[in-house]
Amino acid sequence: MGLRKRIGVMVPSTNTTCEADFQMVAPGGVTIHGQRLWLTNDAAGAEGMDRMNAEIESGARYLATAKVDVIAYGCTTGSFYRGPGWDREMIALIERVAGVPAVATTPSVVEALGFFGVRKISVATPYPEWNNERLRAYLEAVGFKVLNVEGEPSAARAGNQGINDQDPDRVVEFASSVCRPEAEALLCSCTAWRAVEAVEALERRTGRPVVTSNQANIWAALRALGIAEPIAEFGRLLESLAFSAARPGSA
Question: Which of 147, 179, 27, 151 is nearest to 77 (CA)?
Fold first, then answer.
């Protein structure tokens, strides 16, 4: 029996969904190892994200001691709120400090949408308006036509900790209701939202590919490891691994 592959997952300290999704989806022989970055339920806006992201370098050092093979930064807002460019700087920092490949949520989402060749998208989130505005700006800046960005009201009011507790059935109900007829794909943003469990139902309801934050980050991390076996039950993206195992630019 060979050595297991290890994925290090760097998450906001309030997030109880991201690591669980990685563990739920990861194929046999892949283990998940978490590192938390300080975030509180009352943290809002750029100040809260800046405080959390100040721990990225130390988090990468900690994960390096576990001899992980790849590190996934697991916060969508934390990787889009400063706009395009910051996300790549973050990845470069993690790779430099830890000495292993890294992926981050929002760039992974962009790559996943690109894999499907879509341009016009609807976006469902559990965010308040501050996050939604910055997410729209980011997605438009990288070339998508964003038809709408809709935040689920009760999740948005629940804050960073409460988002984790919304049932996937509610994610299906809400996200499918905001997918516009002209949308080529649906994006469900936020690594604390239990959207991975909702993907298959959403794809059946909408008839479109669905990309979620954790699903895209898992896809990117497995590609970085060269894992090519399709994964069923979590949407078209993870079923596509046989066709997309090589990380873009790795050839």
Answer: 151
Rounded to an integer, what is the distance from CA 187 to the centroid of its chain? 10
Q: What confidence tens digit (pLDDT) does each residue in 183-197 have?
A: 999 999 999 999 999
For the stretch 213-216, contacts whose Cβ atoms lie closer than 8 Å and that sit 24 or more positions apart, written own/partner, are 213/76, 213/105, 213/108, 213/109, 213/188, 213/189, 214/17, 214/18, 214/21, 214/22, 214/74, 214/105, 215/21, 215/25, 215/112, 216/105, 216/108, 216/109, 216/111, 216/112
Q: Is the dihedral angle over the CA atoms 16, 161, 153, 55 positive or is it negative?
A: negative
Interatomic CA distance for residues 213 and 54, integer angstroms: 22
Q: What global pTM score does this model have? A: 0.94
Pair of tokens at residue 128: 């308040």
Paired strand residues for 34: 9
Return the structure tokens found at 206: 């909408």
pLDDT tens digit string along 70-115?
999 999 999 999 999 999 999 999 999 999 999 999 999 999 999 9
Distance CA 79, CA 107 (A): 8
